[in-house]
Design brief:
Elements (H helix, E strand, L loop, with lengths): L2 H14 L3 H6 L6 E9 L9 E2 L4 E2 L5 H13 L4 E5 L8 H10 L8 H9 L3 E3 L9 H8 L6 E2 L3 E3 L10 E9 L5 E12 L3 H4 L1 H4 L3 E3 L2 H14 L4 E7 L15 H4 L7 E4 L5 E2 L10 E2 L4 E2 L2 E6 L5 E12 L2 E13 L1 E4 L2 E4 L5 H6 L1 H11 L2 E5 L3 E2 L9 H18 L9 E5 L15 E2 L2 E4 L3 H4 L5 E8 H11 L12 E4 L12 E3 L2 E4 L21 E6 L2 E2 L5 E7 H4 L13 E8 H12 L1 E2 L7 E3 L6 E7 L13 E8 L2 E6 L4
Parallel strand pairs: 1-4, 4-5, 5-6, 9-11, 11-12, 12-16, 21-34, 23-32, 27-36, 29-35
Antiparallel strand pairs: 1-17, 2-3, 7-10, 8-9, 13-16, 14-15, 15-16, 17-18, 19-20, 21-25, 22-24, 23-28, 26-32, 26-33, 29-30, 30-31, 36-38, 37-38
Helix pairs in contact: 4-12, 13-17
């Protein structure tokens, strides 16, 4: 079969066979080699299916489960390579324990690399989070990797020499369709987000500098080819975006696909999945075959949630190999059934056993204190007055975001921070409240303070938009009629507590005698109503046209809750870290925290004779501060207690 006939047959087959398994097993000419690239990314130390924050099993994470998919995918293919796209050694308490508590002595193997060595990874690159613990720790960790780690756009400060090996040429014996063996030289090159020198400036300044990903590729890919690489695979710890190119992009993989000589790209960093709906609308993309600008690309989620596959069909002509066609796909370790998260595969017992001691040591670690709190942290009254359980989260978010925004065009903008009381009774029952006493605080308490695995985001808003954000949040309250005597319930039971955003950095009051401006779907319900009163920044009425950075989470920034002005279009920071990881690191950094609320918001006095009531835990009675407007009234039914807040003053 000549090349033209081969490609015609391949195109016909591809029209009816677009899955990776079908693509990898369909009939081809004998002189053809199938090569399967398997990839993981953004593991963030999630080797075992366990959530150390909530201190329980989690079926949605874990390389131990991904390992089962790896074994199956290998069995399906004659030739395969296993690659990792970084952010491996930081991201959960296991990583923090190894880096901050136990350390690595000579001869120790980092738990992540211990698992990767068992799985026989062929190569990896570095991600931005590899640098969080400093270069010395990174070097100690990588010393235990039984595979090369490459990165082409990190240079030594001063002499400009590569800090890591820019690339590696792997020579592998591959078997063609007739069973004949051939030597194949596979060039593997790595890239990391250039922003590491800003995000980890304290650890990296004066030691390393970064270069543009695309320019580094243009420099080294021809060198790889000149040294005999038959194919080139890029490990790009950088996401997919087709925003206009200016250089130094954080998410440069779309442009990387346009560099001549790159045959396949494993990407990540964004904690998303490609091919898939996360990237619907990405230009010059063949979603069915997982190609970007004609190059096969895969982004396999995060925390071991997916295994990425790129199936290449290689053809040799004149002693040179080339990629005749390819398809990329992803395989998940879990799915949702009847609103339940269900594991699709079991953990690899060898991985579980290998990390048993590390896991048990980490459990002891997360159950130990990471700092101290000088005041109790509870959410008993978080829906009716400014509260320390929200304050500590908003403080941590500002601390993190200011570092991330340093050196960017947004550095000079004032930073506000939005947080909500996640555990505030309701359907969760009378015990569903945060309650951390004065004294030592443990890592697992972070789950009490920040319930969801959101990742941190920041948006740019005008003062007018901040006001409307708060107006939507004020829908948490029923309208109170001050002229009506007797009991009136304050809280709207249909309004989730996680949508009651408090914004710190401004001061304001909420007038519940007015109707809610927005309904629960974010639609303008009472255009003439304005519950938000006396909104001020730095003691003066807020400038409605001034721009602010507001730190929040991916759910809210992306339009979750249907808040006005929030649809994902004004996001200026997509941090790879969870909000609760930020919180843990904030507490660890300070050691002793004073989470007392700053009283930046309150319910306006409305006068009249209304008895304004709300339910909370019976335990809240002991937490009523002296001089508070809150008083206990008795039983509220269903295990709750009833409280009154005096809005006459």
């Amino acid at each position: 079969m000549d090349r033209r006939s081969f490609l015609s047959a391949l195109a016909l087959g591809a029209a009816t066979c677009l899955t990776a398994t079908c693509f990898a097993t369909g009939a081809l000419a004998d002189a053809t080699v199938r090569l399967r690239l398997l990839g993981t990314t953004d593991l963030h130390v999630n080797v075992l299916p366990y959530n150390y924050y909530s201190d329980k099993e989690d079926v949605t994470v874990g390389l131990a489960r991904t390992a089962t998919l790896i074994a199956k995918a290998r069995d399906e293919a004659k030739n395969s390579l296993l690659l990792d796209n970084a952010d491996a050694i930081q991201g959960n308490p296991l990583g923090d324990f190894v880096a901050r508590e136990r350390g690595l002595r000579r001869g120790d193997v980092h738990p992540v690399y211990k698992a990767m060595n068992l799985l026989k990874y062929d190569a990896a690159t570095v991600g931005n989070h590899e640098f969080n613990y400093g270069l010395d720790f990174l070097g100690d960790a990588q010393a235990g990797a039984a595979f090369p780690v490459v990165a082409a756009n990190v240079e030594r400060a001063g002499d400009g020499k590569p800090y890591f090996k820019p690339y590696e040429i792997l020579t592998r014996q591959v078997v063609d369709e007739s069973g004949k063996s051939h030597p194949l030289k596979i060039g593997v090159i790595g890239f990391v987000t250039p922003q590491i020198t800003t995000w980890d400036k304290a650890a990296l300044e004066g030691r390393v500098v970064t270069t543009d990903i695309v320019e580094a590729a243009r420099k080294y890919v021809p060198e790889l080819r000149a040294k005999g690489a038959d194919i080139v695979v890029a490990l790009s710890h950088s996401g997919l975006s087709a925003e206009p190119r200016v250089g130094g992009e954080e998410n440069a993989a779309w442009y990387l696909a346009g560099v001549q000589g790159i045959d396949a790209i494993l990407t990540g960093h964004q904690h998303k999945v490609f091919p898939g709906p996360d990237f619907a609308g990405l230009p010059d993309t063949d979603m069915a075959k997982g190609k970007v600008r004609g190059v096969p690309v895969v982004m396999p989620g995060f925390w071991g949630s997916h295994l990425g596959l790129i199936d290449l069909i290689l053809k040799e002509e004149g002693g040179k190999w080339s990629v005749a066609d390819a398809v990329s796909s992803v395989r998940p370790i879990w799915e949702t059934r009847d609103k339940r998260k269900v594991a699709l595969v079991e953990s690899d017992p060898a991985i579980v056993e290998a990390l048993k001691a590390d896991h048990e040591a980490t459990l002891a670690y997360v159950r130990q204190p990471i700092g101290e709190t000088t005041a109790p942290i509870n959410s008993y009254f978080a829906l009716v007055q400014d509260d320390p359980s929200v304050q500590i989260v908003t403080n941590a978010q500002v601390w993190y975001a200011k570092r991330m925004l340093a050196g960017t065009e947004y550095e000079g903008l004032p930073v506000l921070s939005a947080g909500a009381p996640f555990k505030a009774g309701g359907r969760g029952g009378p015990d569903y409240y945060t309650d951390i006493p004065v004294g030592r605080i443990a890592i697992r308490n972070a789950a009490d303070l920040y319930l969801y695995p959101n990742t941190l985001r920041a948006v740019v808003m005008t003062g007018a938009q901040v006001r409307q954000w708060l107006e939507m949040s004020a829908g948490a309250f029923n309208r109170i009629d001050p002229a009506q005597a007797g009991e009136q319930p304050l809280l709207n039971p249909s309004f989730p507590s996680y949508n009651f955003d408090v914004i710190d950095g401004v001061t304001y009051r909420i007038d519940v005698s007015q109707p809610a401006r927005y309904d629960g779907d974010g639609k303008l319900a009472a255009p003439a109503s304005h519950r938000i009163k006396d909104l001020a920044f730095e003691g003066r009425p807020i400038d409605e046209s001034r721009r602010f950075v507001v730190v929040t989470n991916n759910y809210r920034a992306g339009g979750g809750g249907k808040f006005p002005g929030l649809d994902g279009s004004n996001v200026i920071l997509e941090a790879p870290d969870e909000n609760r990881t930020v919180l843990v690191n904030y507490i660890f950094d300070r050691r002793t925290i004073d989470p007392a609320s700053d009283g930046n918001w309150s319910l306006s006095p409305i006068g009249g004779d209304a008895v304004v009531t709300f339910p909370s835990s019976p335990k809240a009675k002991e937490a009523i501060p002296a001089g508070s407007r809150i008083s206990a009234l008795g039983d509220a039914g269903d295990g709750f207690a009833k409280y009154r807040i005096d809005l006459s003053r």
